[in-house]
Design a protein that fits this description.
Number of domains: 1
Number of strands: 0
Structural class: mainly alpha
Helix content: 55-70%
Largest sheet: none
Shape: globular
Distance between the termini: 13 Å
Strand content: under 5%
Order of helices and strands: HHHHH
Length: about 110
Amino acid sequence: MLPKDEAFVIGFTMGSTNRVTATEEHLFALASKYFYPGPYKFTDDAIAVFKDAIRLGYISDCQPLSEIDYEQYMDLSLSDIRERIGLEVELLKAYYQIEKRRYPEDKASSRII
C-alpha cells in the first residue's frame, strides 16, 4: 500500500464517525507528518488525501467504520459487506478518479474499491 492509501483509509474511517473536529484533523495531520517513524510519515500529498477522505467519510451514509463488528461479515463477499454497511462504491470510485488525476505518479496504488 502507498502512504496515500493508508491516509485515505484512516481519513475515511475517521470521517465516517461524523465526530472529527477540525482540531483533531489538524493534530493527526501534524502527528502523521512529523512524529510517524521514517517510511510511515505522511507527505503533504498524503495529508491532502487524508483530509479529503475525512470529508468523504462524513458525507457518506455508511455506518461508522470504527464501530462495525466485522466478525459477523467474515463469510460474505466484499460486495455484500459494502451493501450491508452502506458503503457507496460509486462515491469512492469517483474520488479515486480525481485522486488518480492529481497524483499520476501513483499508478501502482493498490487500493481496492
